[in-house]
Design goal:
- With 382 residues, this protein is an alpha+beta fold.
- The chain is 27% helix and 19% strand.
- The protein is built from nine helices and twelve strands.
- The strands form two sheets. The protein has a six-stranded antiparallel β-sheet, covered by helices on one side. It has a six-stranded antiparallel β-sheet with strand order 9-8-7-10-12-11.
- Helix 2 crosses helix 4, helix 3 crosses helix 4 and helix 6 packs antiparallel against helix 8.
- The two termini are 24 Å apart.
- The relative contact order is 0.16.
Length: 382
């Protein structure tokens, strides 16, 4: 695990403020290895028995690379740099023997790291951390928000893969309280050996229910441009998914263009869309999103916003992890409605609240999903 200074709680606030500034990253630096150097020999993941959680299929649908370059994966990543590392804490009821393992997504193999901790639940807990150097190599000081968003996307990919395989709803920890791991996803075995989850907020999933394996393997970020306005019904479905999955610190709206440009949000009862603000916002969003001019012509842009300038490190982690998670689920909903979609993670000076006349520093763009009616036809990355 790479522990850069910026991840220490006293520094993450300053790191986010710098990432939000106009300062441009310097020249690229070496990214290092594409996979963490796990000790020991790589091991194949055994086939699952009839009562076991199929870890081979779970990881294939969520984290495994589909090509030799390592770029094509079910979870998107800024710059296709894929900084997220995964340790598996395996209990009874899985296709691997109980223990702790490191996962290699390029070879779809695991490395045995030791025995499982006392009290390990049946099923598997995927613990997610990052090798920051991979993303810092290209994005420099803008990397930390992207690292957290990527981790949220990886957690969502695991969640969706478990649901596609018929597992009960996984327990997803995105509370931001710990630096290592940044997030975790516990998936119970199919025989119900894990204890019942306590009552609490549900994680949500895409509109229309659990995805199929084919949907997850086909999900790709569409290359720009993304023209064509989504229908109100499709846009409401995408907003609904994002709001249900992005609980807590985030708010959600969507920037739309003519004939009535503005920011739209769901009505209080969730059945319609209502106008949050009037006026064309997409050109401003393009300037805020590292100058990606194509965003000005996107059919719509879903926005996660919040995370004030005085947020502490735990709040910053929580908001960005949850934003990545929710945008990932919203992406699946968008594809189900025939839309092309592309996550957008790098935002500078994107003080949405101040732009709308509110107090500055209170309501920043955290993450986004650009939407259009053109179908994606190739792999591309955020």
């Amino acid at each position: 695990m790479d522990h850069p200074r910026a991840e220490r709680p006293e520094d993450l606030v300053a790191a986010l403020a710098r990432a939000r500034s106009e300062e441009r990253p310097g020249p690229d630096t070496p990214a290092g290895t594409a996979v963490r150097a796990w000790p020991g020999a790589p091991l194949p993941i055994p086939a699952a028995g009839p009562a076991d959680l199929d870890l081979r299929a779970l990881l294939r649908l969520s984290l495994a690379a589909a090509d030799g370059s390592g770029r094509m994966r079910p979870a998107p990543s800024a710059g296709a740099l894929h900084p997220v590392d995964t340790e598996l804490v395996v209990g009874p009821g899985c296709s691997l023997p109980p223990g702790r393992y490191g996962y290699d997504p390029l070879r779809h193999r695991v490395h045995h790291l030791g025995r499982q901790p006392d009290g390990t639940l049946p099923g598997v807990s995927a613990e997610l951390s990052v090798t920051a150097r991979r993303t810092v190599s290209h994005y420099g000081h803008r990397a930390w928000p992207l690292l957290l968003l990527d981790t949220g996307h990886a957690a969502a990919a695991l969640f969706l893969a478990a649901r596609a395989l018929g597992a009960a709803e996984p327990e997803v920890r995105l509370d931001g309280r710990t630096e290592y791991p940044l997030a975790s996803v516990h998936i119970p075995p199919p025989d119900g050996r894990s204890p019942a989850r306590p009552a609490g907020p549900r994680t949500g999933e895409p509109t229309g229910g659990p995805p199929t394996p084919a949907e997850l393997l086909a999900r790709r970020s569409a290359p720009p441009p993304l023209p064509g306005a989504p229908s109100p019904n499709a846009l409401r479905a995408v907003l609904t998914t994002a709001e249900r999955a992005g609980t807590g610190d985030l708010r959600w709206c969507a920037a739309v263009g003519p004939p009535r440009p503005g920011l739209m949000e769901r009505s209080a009862d969730g059945t319609t869309l209502r106008r949050h603000a009037a006026g064309e916002a997409r050109a401003t969003l393009a300037a805020w999103a590292a100058g990606q001019a194509w965003i000005a012509d996107a059919g719509a842009v879903l926005l996660a916003h919040g995370c004030p300038a005085d947020a502490d490190a735990a709040h910053i982690r929580r908001a960005h992890l949850r934003a990545g998670f929710a945008v990932h689920l919203a992406h699946v909903t968008a594809l189900r409605h025939g839309l092309a979609a592309r996550p957008v993670g790098s935002w500078q000076q994107a003080d949405l609240g101040a732009a709308l006349g509110a107090a500055p520093g209170r309501d920043w763009v955290v993450h986004a999903l650009a939407l259009g009616t053109r179908h994606a036809d190739e792999e591309n990355t955020t």
